[in-house]
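pls read this protein.

:::
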Amino acid sequence: MRGLFVTFEGIDRSGKTTQARLLAEFLSQSGREVVLTQQPGGSPLCAEIWGLIRDRRHFGQMASLTELMLFAADRAQHVREVILPALEAGRSVVCDRYADSTVAYQGYGRGLSLDTISRLNEAATEGLIPDRTFFIDIPVEEALRRGLGRAADRMEMEQAAFYGRVREGYLRIAASESRRVITVDGCDTVDRVAERVRADILRKG
């Protein structure tokens, strides 16, 4: 039987990485074999691609289409090398970011064609859709309070307006795919957010 595939999404500093780790720990303690991974950078080759994307030296220089293609390359490698083998072996996979990130960041954030992104995501994921996606939602002002904009990588150097567009993209994704995407208030405590995530997973079985 194929394993459970869960993804976490949200703007930077939303707390999604923490929640992905907590869910992976919970599933493992419940007796499941779990792979906790991330996009981008979820394998040695993917880490090299992510290094190109995040390099501060490329801020203001990397074309948006180049960025999109690099994320697609990372995703294709990650799905083929890490995610699919784990799922086919019956393991649960918890992934920090997946295809929705590209729709939100490169589509709504950068203004690239959503149709182009959809086609690239379909190819890169080989049609693999998460069983559940948790969108950890926080206002941009809260992300800034948590340190967004002061981080080292190129993506987090963007202005608040960019992250406002990204958040709007996530809200639209959640509204249009409400059967898959669960929106969770990331301004709540870490424990309460984790409880909400666990409760939904237990209901889903």
Observations:
- The two ends are 14 Å apart (CA to CA).
- The chain has one domain: 5-204.
